[in-house]
Amino acid sequence: MLDKNDQLHAKTRSQLIGASVARREDAPLVTGSAQYVADVQLDEPLHISFVRASEANCRIDEVHCDDAQEMPGVAAVFSGRDCPELSPLEVNPILGEAENQNFEMLARNALHFVGQPFAAVLADTLSHADDAAEAIYADTSDADSHRVTSLRAAIDTDCCPVFDKRWQEGDLEKTLSAAHATVEVEVEHSRLAPSPMETRGIAVKYHEDTGGVTVWLSTQTPHRARKMLAKILDCDGTSIRLISPDVGGAFGMKASLYPEEIFAVWAAMTLKRSVRWIAWRNEDFLAASHGRGLICRGKLAVDKEGTFLALDAEVNAPLGSWLTTSSAIPAWNAARILPGPYRVTNYDLRSRAYETHTAPFGIYRGAGRPEAAMLMERLVEEASRKTGIESNELRRKNLLASDELDQRRSTDVRLDSGNYTELLDRLMNSDHYKEALETRSKLRDAGRLAGIGTGFFVEPSGQGWESATIRCHPDGKIEVLSGGSTQGHGRETAYAQIAADELDVDPDNITVRCGDTQDCPNGIGALASRSTGIGGSAVRAAAQELRAKLDNHTNPKETVEACVKYHADGEAWGYGCYLAEVEIDPDTGKLTVHHMHCLDDAGKIINPKMVSGQIIGGVAQGLGEALMESVSYDDSGQLQTGSLMDYALPRASDMPAITLDHTETPSPRNLLGAKGVGEAGTIGAPIAIFNATADALAELGNANLSMPLTSNKIWNEIERLQQEQE
Ligand code: SMO
Is 490 found in the same domain as 521? Predict the structure, then answer.
């Protein structure tokens, strides 16, 4: 029994917020007892195998399913025309009135991209389903429309953008023409496959008594997924319970519902059977959302002293063949957060996104932030070359001062708190920086190609609300239910720390749950670095309310509960400055990142060890983007990187030594003062690596580089620069 006088007010424990409490999630995760969707036991489920398009942008004349129907174990076969036309998936309201015209569970009349499902087999075993799926094929004919398989083709052929936005401030033309110097940069980001360890997957249990279903879905947005499923399938709110069990990574790829998942639920309800589908790795490469892929262009004007005067920028993004819930977010984010941490009062920012005959496109860890920061930081480096002012000096001169952050820009961006120049100075004055300079000199003296690079960035965390319910049971046990979601980040540990501090109880007394739409309060999910700042603040607010209630209960012999829907007061803005040290082997072009020093301000830190984990993981993915990852389509829309043999993910041996440092400036925008840090590594690392690479090649000339910085590309660039020198 929780006695308020003895326990609630006894200040005997040390504060847990700010302590590196061990992750309570890890034991089940590392011992194999975690429960992923594939571990969910169903009673004689039907297994689904999808038949996918082998060409892009064609008409479907006929789908041949007859042979498959007769094969062993087959319970049902569907083509697109056997399925009802359902209402489309809703897309993020920032897209305005855009309609998701191409969204179908199974393609009916046209195949838009290679990998699009157009038929499905349900059978007693997966092998039976796969065997029968092999017997299905489609007769197709050429589509009337032009096939557009790359973003560049979409831009060059003047395709009509589906998303088109523009923000202006000041007088760009006048400032540009009067400027001392202008520099221009184009940055192309490869399309990336988010590649969580666990692929997409769904298990659906059909309840004969009610006709409803319980859905286990590998998702980062359980409540939204349930709501959308109910709307698309036109069933009442109570007939679908959705549970996101342990999720093996998501990175934005599991933020949207997919046609395969909607089909699985529809099939279970239609056949009145339990069903399951677990994507093969190649099905994720083919048909799960890709990220990045943006082409960004910028022009920066500076005066004689290096003060930034004006920014003219254009962000272009691919959308793929149908719109995932947040498909336009990267395009929107990359443009609206410009000019990032810098003071530029004259600007013109355009953002456009185009449909392409490829896999869908979506948010991927960073979702526009890495693109915005890369464009700005490349412009800074160019301005440095042109003006002869050292690049960190330029940064220092143009970073916003603390008292300028709270001003609202025409993009509706309002930064929050921090001291940007202090962070930069901290890096410049650090031993790491001095050592990096010394190491570079030594390597260069020995005739090697070595470079260092910095990258400064801001990381807006999500906005809006999240909810939490906390119960105190008569036995003293505390139950925290969050509307959020988790995919391995350690949410349960952090939320227990927050609740334990507020209630002054032992965290071992606290259980934390999220991801079950039946038991947990309504919520948004784990997206956009929002879970600690907003979800954690909801937990704190609920704990405060519970504590007040307990204070008024002189004899708490019943369960006392507090439910809070917490609204954040705008976005919290983390920021950071990273330093990379690289070396290039001139004979092979192989680039090695020796060291990465990451300096972050993530606001109030709840658990330092978990923050470090987020940064290191983000650096790994950022290094992947910088050096090796790239989804490739040929001109006809065939995917050339459909497996982990063709798509290079970083391995442990590719990772540099990483050192971490931080400042801690609380955000005024939420109850905890926390800022997001989940995406920091993916933003800062590619910039620092890219700039260090350019620095390493600088003694040969001005390198013309693009990501990924493969050995082949760098070797060719070395050859070109050496020929220019001769
Ligand atoms: S890319 Mo994140 O899951 O908002």
Answer: yes
